[in-house]
Amino acid sequence: MELWHLTVDTPRVPDRVAPGERVVLHIGTWPVEPGQSVWVRYQVERPGAPPRSERVEAVWRRNVDANSEWRAELGPFPAGARVHYTVHGRSPAGDQSGPDAAFRVSPRLYLALLWHQHQPLYRDADHPRAEGSFVQPWVRLHVLRDYYSMVALVAEHPGVHLTINLTPVLLWQVEEYVERGATDLALDLTLRPVEVLSEAERGTILRSFFDADWHNQIFPHPRYKELFVQRREGQPFGEQDLRDLQMWFNLAWFGKEFREGPVELVTGETLQVDRFVEQGRDFSQADIESMVAEQYRLLRAMVPVHRELQERGQIEVSTTPFYHPILPLLVDTDRASLDRPDTTLRPRFAYPEDAGAQVRLAVDHYRHCFEREPRGMWPAEGAVSQSVVPLFARHDVRWIATDRGVLARSGRWGYRVDDPDVLCQPYRVEEEDRALSVFFRDTELADAIGFRYHAHEDPTHAAREFLEEIRRRFARSATGDGDRLLTVALDGENAWGAYRDDARPFLHALYGLLEADTEIQTVTFSEYLEGNPARQIEPHPPETHPRVHDLFTGSWIDEAGSLPGVDLGTWIGEPEENQAWELLGEARQVLGRTGATPLEAPAAFDALYAAEGSDWFWWYGADQDSGVDEEFDALFRTHLRNVYRGLDLTPPDALDRYIVPRVVVWTFTEPVERIQSADRLTVRTHCAGVLGWWTDDAPAREEALAPAGGVMAGVHQYHLTLGPFAEGVRALRFRFRCTEPGCPGTDACCVAEPARVEIL
């Protein structure tokens, strides 16, 4: 009798055994003869429990030619079990035994989720208050909706482990609010009694206090929607209208759970704004001040809630080089990868010491916030290169993460990232005798959460679709008996404004399904690398990872018009971007010529490092559009001016000139009555739609509005730019048709009468 198992025709199914799953062993014997029997002896080993031995009889299935086929079932087994087994056979000629075999019971796939949370430096250095102020409110408002709740929500699902990336520049701004009394322009205008508002201040409120997602933040609240319509129709605002607008702009940014009832925070304080939601209107100055006080409860609780869950082991908090710079470009812009044929590089910027300082400052600030060392970093925009590896490794950073497109272009021939066995594992990258682990995210799954699932009417269905795609593409496609890890990383703040109820139903559904799943287990990156015996997760140290040679200089962004993509062209190469790099380089050279050190000129160096952030360069050029590019342009040039001021030097006149061309912007809440014929007019909305437009008696045209960035605010904006117009054209008319999912066509964004703009 010959006996065989674990061949092509006698596999173990499944090859990778998940907890609670039965295992089928296919066995073959030769020749066919009466009196044969086959059985399996196996031993189950579990940490903390004595070994358990069992015997299972195999069942004869059929004869094929001179061979017999047998089948035995084992299990199910718990997570973390190791099963050793041997196949035995008996025939009239005697007993036979096959070779020893074994398998480990573990999830088919580990899933590492990373939510990246970031805001650039909005500080207004010229503000008269010593405490300082910010020109934009997005740090504060995202704390209300996202930064606290994203962690508190995870705490409700203890079986889910994930990573949250908090940039130091974001945390520093929160600290400025909490510990040093910083404010922002919108907060000042919120607290300013309406009786003393100037006309300019009233205008700013009417223009900017509708800067929220219309369908998810404004229209669900009757009074806020009423004010929106009132403004859209050009009706006057009385003092009570303005107070209600001051209140609702802030209330709409509080997360769903805060608007529905009192919430006990991790600090022991109770936050309660639901009373204002129930009141709805006719707010007093005292009501507004009380509501702002509630905001500060959340601001104070943001870092503690992250610290608590990290100490508990449920989340890992990672960080980013301090001001969110594109590290490879700080090291040497001449090494930038550019895929668009119309892009160029000039002049060279090469200050690896600045790149090192950005990493060091991030580590120092992380230690200040969390009283421990960071284990991992999300490089800004996932931008990596072989040259930046030592910058992380010198500070004992053990892992970084980036996009699958970088892996696809790394090495001599690239990697087949469509193969789950290639993508679903960390890699080891080495440079200057230093090494760290690199994880590569799946782009499609991240984009599905960021841009697709919000359109689903049923959030549970969207969550199931996400898991089914993971199962189809990865969990059930991976081969071999080694562990597999899938990385899904995306912005953890900007997507949620497009979801109903701030994405709480979707995230609860997703986490609930992940908790119950036996095939997929969530982990933090460090948990996967170091192991976690309490969750039966074995360590996966860097020396066991395959090495990736020559890590490609790229990012997680596929620049518009760029093939094959994931290069650095979003931040350099176009005329506006190159002009900004030139101004940055000039300021850096001046700073270098002084011989000053960061200790001798801290203000100058802080301003320089802030100007090196990626956010300013993102909005330059035609490849990205925020809808407010000129505001980011102004902030960038302000940081550069502060470099010179920190050295007691006069900033050059070039910093007073715009880099971004100026355009006239028309919005529902700030319509434009007339423009010059040479002007370009941008029509901007906060929901998707189509613009039908015509000039004078010309035939009408229809064009879809393109998504504008709004990334920092997390407000979804859309726009269409028209003009300049031919001489003799006297008027432009247009009508907006909303295409937002679920819009009935009668909402406040849908206006029957066309708008008219006179052309002078």
Question: What this model shows, in words?
Answer:
The chain has 760 residues and is an alpha/beta fold. Among the domains are: 2-106, Immunoglobulin-like (Sandwich); 320-363 and 377-544, Glycoside hydrolase 38, N terminal domain (7-stranded beta/alpha barrel); 575-656; 664-759, Immunoglobulin-like, CATH 2.60.40. The chain is built from 24 helices and 33 strands. The strands form eight sheets. Strands 1, 2, 3, 6 and 7 form a five-stranded antiparallel β-sheet that branches. Strand 21 and strand 22 (434-441) form a beta hairpin. Helix 1 (138-147) packs across helix 11, helix 3 packs across helix 11 (285-312) and helix 21 runs antiparallel to helix 22. The longest helix has 28 residues, at 285-312. The chain is globular, with a radius of gyration of 30 Å. The chain starts with a strand and ends with a strand. The model is unreliable at 710-714 (pLDDT under 50).
